[in-house]
Amino acid sequence: MVRLSMRGALVLSASLGPLLMMPVRAAAQTAPAQPGSVTLAPLTVEARQWKEDEQDLPASVSVLRGDTLGTPLWDSLAAVAKVTPNVQIEQSTVQSRVVIRGMTAANTALQDPVGYFVNDVALPHGASQAPRLFDTASMEVLKGPQGTLYGRNTEAGAIKVITGEPSRTLRAQAEASVGFRDGATGWSPTTVASGQVSGPVTGDVAASLAVRGETTDGVHRNRWDGSSTGGDLDRWTLSGGVSAFVGDDTEVTLKSVVERGEQGKQRMRYITGAFTTPRYETNYNTESWDRTLTAVQSAKVVHQAGDLELTSVTGWTHYSRDFLMDLDGWSVQALRNTLSHTDDAVSQELRLATADPQARVRWLGGLYTFREWTDLEFTTGTAATRRTTTIDQTGAAAFGQVEIGLTDRLRAGLGSRVEWLGQDGHQTYATATGRTTFDGSRDSVTLLPRASLSFDVTDSSLLYGSYARGYLPGGYNYGSAGTAEGFTYDAESSWTAEVGLKNRFWEDRLNTRLALFHTTTRDKQIFDLVPGGTQRVSNAARAEIYGMEASAEARLDGNWSVFASGGWQHAEATEYRAMVQQGAALVSTDLSGRTLPMAASVTYGLGVRYDAEAGWFGQASLNGSGPFYFDSLNVARQGASLLADAEIGYRFAGVDVALWGSNLFDENVYSRAAATPVGIIAEDGDGRELGLRIKAYW
Fold it and tell me: What are phi and psi of 114, to 5 degrees?
């Protein structure tokens, strides 16, 4: 780990930031603040790949603006659960994922049912591959199947992140934040520093550059050797962009986001059984670390041709991960696990759409293709047990949608996507007794239709309904296959129906949203134990999920605003039989009726903000969840929780100073938990953290 040099760099960058920005002081401006309006600002979304008012969208979507995401209380994936109900977040040292409406992938699978897009480019490994929320202009959280327009890996929804657009006027900002986390070693420091500059290069060209660095000692203590480095984190993120106008009707935008991280991996502890230790206290006898690199490059061209708009998006993503970890999370003399993982993908999308948002008939058509290469080397327990896997995937799709105004108030939408996916996987499985190879190739064609109907009850009230097919491709069991049959598994699909009501009240000062949904899955991917200590992924379960969710946002006056959300869902495996360890034997067990993992029945959020433009500002929020299980056997359980965050600050001329605190009640919410033969092992989530941030604008 490079704690000392990283921390020194952060402190130096925070100190020199204002000096480095001095050449642009001539263009100084006050901190961007919302005008003292008493109406809610309109929300323009691109969930359907065209710009429209969120009020007119016949679907559930939540939007987070860049000014909100730029604070310590909102700059991680956890922000998603604050504003949209029926969502759970995992940010552990094993994986990161967003669970929407109770839909998850097979544990540690390479693919996830919630698609993640950065600057219109799909991340093949979803949230696990996503960079930190930094230099973000907006985030859209789309609920329900999105395969019609976004293709594979969007069975439960999609998250679209757009980084900052290059500005046509010169502007800059620098920020430093110091926080202290409460843990096993007392209060441990966390330091974050960032800087951004954006402005014109020539008359038709603008550019932006942003950098962020983060370092923390962590809050864990390892009993085996007394070390406190198991929760360390060092992370750098770089975001940049160039935008150019080519003539009067074409804009070209190039964007790049690169992030490198290194963290300690001694964070799991037993919470039941003979090996139980207190919160944040672990007992590893093996060094454990995790290093990642992610990069997302995009080239977007938008050309206006009369009443039509042609869009081209070219993408390249790179992801690499290497880790070393203790196999048992305890001090017994067990051997270690290692992983070396690289993934590269290139993609190209073309879209042609009507440009007039008021057109009675609005349509869009497009083509998409991608190529992805994945290499993994995974050892389990001993270097003599090694799985070396290569996966090559190629895909192509044609898609389209049309929305027709049947009357002045009634609109019908219909869309579909035909997607071909070719997969070729190869694994060499080597043990002390020999070597075996597994091969699996498959071609599939999937149809992903969607239909919607929306009716303007009044000028400020929309009633809608939709029905769509979701899809999660099949894949390869890279980490635990013991046979050729167990190396591959098939795709899963689902159908989701949703009805909703959107309202604007109180002279556009209050927005309310209500949705009811029902999802059925017939071939859900699940892990199943097989004799010999290995696992396979089978399409053996059927599931049903239904529920409701509501949200509201209100502007009380020019300074005060409030938001609230709540959701209820029932997520059940209606048909589920699996092999379960009972003593020394594996027994086929009927698990029908079990709750799906990470599907709390109740979730809710409540928040208030105050901003006087100049002078005082602040915010406070509560985010609650009912109990849920981490596993399909319903053994590892998280109890009900309530997280409280708050910030209070003062805005001077071009400078913000704020005190903030997260998880003020110090709730113990596990990031991850799993059942083992000797007890439940879990990773503690972030505890209470208090901090100070200073942000300067030019």
Answer: -110, 110
Q: Tell me if the pTM is above 0.70.
A: yes
- Dist. CA 247–CA 580, nearest whole Å: 65
The pLDDT-based confidence of 21 (bands split at 50, 70, 90) is: very low
**What is the C-alpha separation between 687 and 218, in angstroms, rounded?**
11
Q: How many CB atoms within 10 Å of residue 532?
A: 10
**Per-residue tokens: 595:** 């709750």
Token readout for 267 is 């964070």
Residue 4: predicted pLDDT? 37
What contacts 373, CB < 8 A, 6 or more positions away? 343, 344, 345, 390, 391, 392
Residue 373 in contact with residue 125, Cβ under 8 Å? no
Q: What is the mean pLDDT of the chain?
A: 90
Domains and CATH numbers, the chain: 3-697 (2.40.170.20)
Segment 676-681 mean pLDDT: 90
Give the confidence band of 598 by pLDDT, cuts at 50, 70, 90. very high
Closest CA to 137 of 255, 234, 250: 255
Question: For residue 546, what are its two tokens?
Answer: 């239904």
Q: How far apart, in whole angstroms, are the C-alpha atoms of residue 56 and residue 587?
A: 52
pLDDT band at 383 (very low <50, low <70, confident <90, very high): low
Q: How many whole angstroms separate alpha carbon 252 and alpha carbon 250?
A: 7
Tokens of 115: 């698609």
